[in-house]
Design brief:
By secondary structure, this protein is α/β, with parallel strands linked by helices. The chain is about 20% helix and about 40% strand. The chain has four helices and eleven strands; from the N terminus they run E-E-E-H-E-H-E-E-E-E-H-E-E-E-H.
Length: about 200
């Protein structure tokens, strides 16, 4: 299954035998030769659309066909925990978010992910525990369509100093939270981040 976010609304690419309890409320469409994937993307950009489940024989093949229509930009991000088991969250543009950013030339994705967390939240002593997942979301810039592929890593840190938000990146607050105490269904965050944290929580609790 792939979750492809368009204007923070999910286009779910899945096979018919996968459980989709989380997305039952979304309109379901079956993949066919007549279906134009970019027509579906444009439909998802309409304000009245909330999400679509696209049933495919091969979700991976469909995902590759979809990605071919975009210029891909790679980013790295962190799901970071401190020694007390609290998760690092930041407030950007009035929503809670996780630290992430584009990979610089010459960096590995892991190096870029660590650098972005350090720059956006003002901490260090980061250690990657494992790769967790990728997220996909699209945006338009000067008439071009881009696909941002964010590679997420679970990280840990022994840092105990003051967290410092990177104001020039529109980050106004950085803090530690207890993931188990966050009601992710009502949490004021982006839908892509909500789904990422729901997946993480379901795999670690």
């Amino acid at each position: 299954m792939y979750k492809f976010f368009i204007n923070d609304k999910p286009l779910i690419l899945t096979s018919s035998n996968e459980s989709l309890n989380t997305f039952e409320a979304y309109k379901q469409i079956s993949m066919s030769k007549e279906l134009n994937l970019m027509d579906l993307v444009r439909k998802m950009e309409e304000p009245q659309e909330h999400g679509i489940r696209l049933i495919c024989d091969d979700p991976t093949e469909t995902m590759q066909e979809l990605k071919a229509n975009f210029t891909s930009i790679h980013a790295g991000g962190g799901i970071v925990f401190n020694a007390s088991g609290e998760i690092l969250m930041m407030r950007r543009l009035e929503k809670w978010d996780l630290p992430k950013g584009k990979i610089d030339p010459g960096e590995t994705i892991e190096e870029g992910a660590i650098r972005e967390v350090e720059e956006e939240c003002g901490l260090n002593q980061l250690k990657i525990k494992r790769f967790f997942d990728n997220t996909y979301h699209t945006y338009k810039l000067q008439g071009h369509r881009f696909l941002k592929v964010t590679h997420w890593y679970e990280m840990e840190t022994q840092f105990t100093g003051e967290l410092v938000p990177q104001l020039e990146e529109n980050i106004t607050e950085v803090c530690w939270m207890r993931l188990l105490e966050i009601d992710l269904n009502s949490f004021d965050t982006y839908e892509s981040i909500r789904q990422l944290l729901l997946d993480f929580k379901s795999q670690t609790t």
